[in-house]
Design goal:
CATH class of the largest domain: Mainly Beta
Helix content: under 10%
Structural class: mainly beta
Number of domains: 2
Strand content: over 45%
Oligomer: single chain
Number of helices: 0
Largest sheet: 6 strands, antiparallel
CATH architecture of the largest domain: Roll
Number of strands: 18
CATH superfamily of the largest domain: SH3 Domains
Length: 167
Amino acid sequence: MIAMGLTSAPATAQAVPPQSQGAPEQRGAVTNLPLPRYVSLKGNEGNARRGPSLSHRIDWVFRHAGMPLRVVAEFGHWRRVEDKDGAGGWVHYALLSGVRTALVTQDMLELRTRPNPDADIVARAEMGAILRLNECQPDWCRVSGGGQRGWVPKTTIWGVDAAEIRD
């Protein structure tokens, strides 16, 4: 077993509620992509502003490359984003990436060889580590980071909705 430090960010566990069953899917007025949706911070720093322009005050600064963020609104070249604690603001789209990542919300999270709680442990990730999000099944996601890859329960990461399936 290998312990992974990986990229660390402040962490507190909080699940993202799935969208209501049967409710029509919202789409962004600019991109026509689903809202809410997850993205990640492209660089090491991104300013979150009070409104969608450079003239608005900076309320928050994201400082972790790859940090998963949830897009909840769009206006021109700006996206309203939130982190797992609900902090955020308007960020220019150029600072965001479509690469999916997830934030570990459980300390010493065990990455397993298969999506099964009895499968062998291949690595452990610290709470706050940022992992690359790969395939997701109903209850498990395959993640990678620090040269390791494995399966984790969806309930132990933030950056994917409970009902989301990824191939």
